[in-house]
Amino acid sequence: MNWIDTIVQGVLLGGLYALFASGLSLVFGIMRLVNLAHGDLIVLGAYLILLIVSLLGLSPFVAAMVALPLMFALGYGLQKFVLNRVLGEDILPPLLVTFGISIVVQNALLQGASADTQRLPAGDIGVASLNLGIVNIGVLPLLTFGSAVGVILILNHVFYRTALGRAFRATSDDATTASLMGIRPRAVFAQATGIAMMIVTIAALYLGLRASFDPAVGPARLIYAFEAVIIGGLGSLWGTLAGGVIIGLAQTIGAAINPEWQILAGHVAFLLVLLVKPRGLFPRAFD
Amino acid sequence: MALLSTHGLTAHYGQFQALFGVDVTLDAGECVAIIGANGAGKTTLMRSISGVLRNESKSIRYRDLPIGSLAADEVMQRGIAMVPEGRRLFPSLTVEENLLIGAQVRKGQGPWTLEAIYELFPILKERRKNAGTALSGGQQQMVAIGRALMSNPDVLLCDEISLGLAPVVIRDIYNALPRIRAGDAAMIIVEQDIGQALKVADRVYCMMEGRVTLTGTPQALSREAIHNAYFGAAA
Amino acid sequence: MNTPASRTPYRVETRTRTSSIAGFTAIAVVVLLVVLPAFASRSLIQDLFFILTMLTLAQFWNLLAGYGGLVSVGQQAFVGIGAYALFSTVILWGLDPVPAILLGGLAALVLAVPFGFFAFRLQGAYFAIGTWVLAEVARLVVAQWKAVGGGTGTSLPRSATESIIFTSEIATLFGVRASAARDILAYWLALVLAIVAIGGIYWLLRSKRGLALAAVRDNPQAARSVGVDAQRVKWFVFLVAALGTGLTGALIYMQKARISPDAAFSLNDWTAYVIFIVVIGGIGTIEGPIVGVLVFFALQALLAQYGAWYLMVLGVIGIGVMLLAPRGLWGSFSDRTGIQLFPIRRRLVVGALTPKTPSREE
Ligand SMILES: Nc1ncnc2c1ncn2[C@@H]1O[C@H](COP(=O)(O)OP(=O)(O)O)[C@@H](O)[C@H]1O
Ligand SMILES: [Mg+2]
Description:
The structure holds three protein chains of three kinds. By secondary structure, chain B is α/β, with parallel strands linked by helices. Chain B has nine helices and twelve strands. Chain B is globular. The longest helix of chain C is centred in the middle third of the chain and has 29 residues, at 178-206. In chain C, the strands form two sheets. Chain C has a two-stranded antiparallel ribbon. Chain C has a two-stranded antiparallel sheet with strand order 2-3. In chain C, 70% of the residues lie in helices and 3% in strands. Chains in contact: A-B, A-C. Magnesium ion binds next to helix 1 of chain B. Magnesium ion (MG) binds next to helix 1 of chain B.
């Protein structure tokens, strides 16, 4: 077994998990909402891309571009018409509603697309790799990781350098006072969920390119995303990337020791971090 | 015709009624002070006008239109800005961002720009990269005032801008008031410091237990009348 | 009207007239359910077993989420652990399945300690997913346990199922075959468990602990200031729910006699359905899960043949209830009529007057 190879694969896998997690992190950061349907929405995104690929004969990358605005609209509408109504002090309603959405999405996909596993056609890029002497790095995993870094750079830019991001942060701090600034918190929330859905689309693209998927794989993606967010510390996107890398590493190392331990190893890593640093590795100073 | 007026305004927190038919008016260019003891309902009145608390549409009129049922963001966009009680700066925004967000949605006609605010409160320019909450209480209050001015509002609501500040700091802030008034906004200031209020206001309302108990110009009000309106007549 | 309270005779009541009528009805229903196996078909007994066990799971989830404010989506861990404790003690130690049910509950209780230790480090919504992760860990670990079949699972040995205590007596009493007698036994145990769960939770909520629980849920800060240790109350609720859920899980799998990690730790079967039962019926009431389980069973009977559609409908109903009537069917009914079968809110009865609306004792 090649340890260096295992570690490199693990780090790159972490990029995928960071992509799963960024949308979750964004939405939680802005409106303290944990979307239990997040994983299923990623799977929905993958099916949407697949549908566009097969209808229009596009490459998955182009199809994802087409899916981006559609997913934004879905997120915007979901927030505006459903989730905004249940936001509040009580955490129970949003949890239960998103849990309901999770069940609905899973079964709608099951009904519409059957339980068969699917895969996005990756073409040449799916098998291409860079030979760096000691390790062979797949182009696709590298691209995934690069996209995760890119998404986080863009999100951080939006968050800290634009008027929209300012509104996001202000609303997240204190929605009532933000409304005294003329900002409509509900519109901000809808935009945030729309953006989160665009990240979900990118995550969905790589989910579908790298492995096969079926309507039931959503909940596990939610769990990995959640673990990455908690490990990283709430509200820190770079922390989320680090969290994703830790889960990815734990999984690949676990799998290298015994293939049956892959998933378990990821969970154990999460629990260890929770044990040692309950607020994550990079907690926000205030909350 | 008044610029802004309330008509039999009531307000409730759950079962508890905090306002019982409050009538106040504000004319263009005027500065009105609202005084009253803790719990009199001053903040509730401000929150009602600014739309944080919703009311019956007709209970608040602005430029002769009912605005009582509008949400806070809609009220603000019509030109009524508020300096909320307790300053309420956004902790994850810098001082400058806190100011900028005041004009992000509405940028009315008027003298107030980032530069003008920095001229009004020079210390803020020095500290513009700091987190808003890293400032002293007085500086935070300056940011909160500046933030509300940034939209060049027609009506400025100030809730207890001297609360918890040292006397010298209060003096600094009140020294800026004439320049703020020169900017043409009509103002309602809520104050517990009666002396300060009487000095700057054109008219005064005194509130007690959710009702207006006294109103008049500072000159026309006797010390005793204010005392009674403030604490209730000695029974 | 403003008579000083000290001079007015008053008492605190939690009982209402409807609740007394309900009490008698409940006793009649219980008697009926006890003697039912004498004339009911085997399939009806099996349906009732399903209803009763789901009801018990729902009551404990409701205790956690509705009363304790602890939204767990990992209760399947306790069903699974309870069930596996039963299977392993029966298979490996040769225990009789009925006493093994108690060990199932005990195992869940023991597991709840490390679970709580981790989960309570997470707040609110993150607590929810945290419990889910823990349940996944439990499932994955159990799937490594080869002695009870690993990932594919196993069945209770014939020797064990055929010699379960009381079954031969039941078989002769009702003149049925051994397999039907086992169902009757399981049904009775489920009935006992459901009654104990409902009675116990009702008693708990009316006790001083119940008051502390309500205080913690409604206002943790205030609760702390009057000396209620929120953390202890939460632990208590968490452990009680784990115990009850573990017992129920063990009983369910004693009746099924076949187990696999995916089934016993199923999020859908043991938590998603349970959440829908509670939400549709009315969270935060004891009546809610009872109403909910009946609605759930009816929906299942009507729609289960449509597979995915059934779950979609269930999801949509759950979302709809949360948006339009967040207090559920029973909660909305109770709000409108003031009827409570298990009154927990204390009414203050002053003098001869009875206030029209039940007021809450603070
Ligand atoms: N959020 C609230 N919930 C319940 N009661 C409140 C709330 N805010 C204020 N009150 C009550 O309303 C009354 C008026 O309060 P407020 O308007 O804040 O008074 P003031 O600003 O004059 O001190 C007080 O009795 C206060 O206790
Ligand atoms: Mg006040």
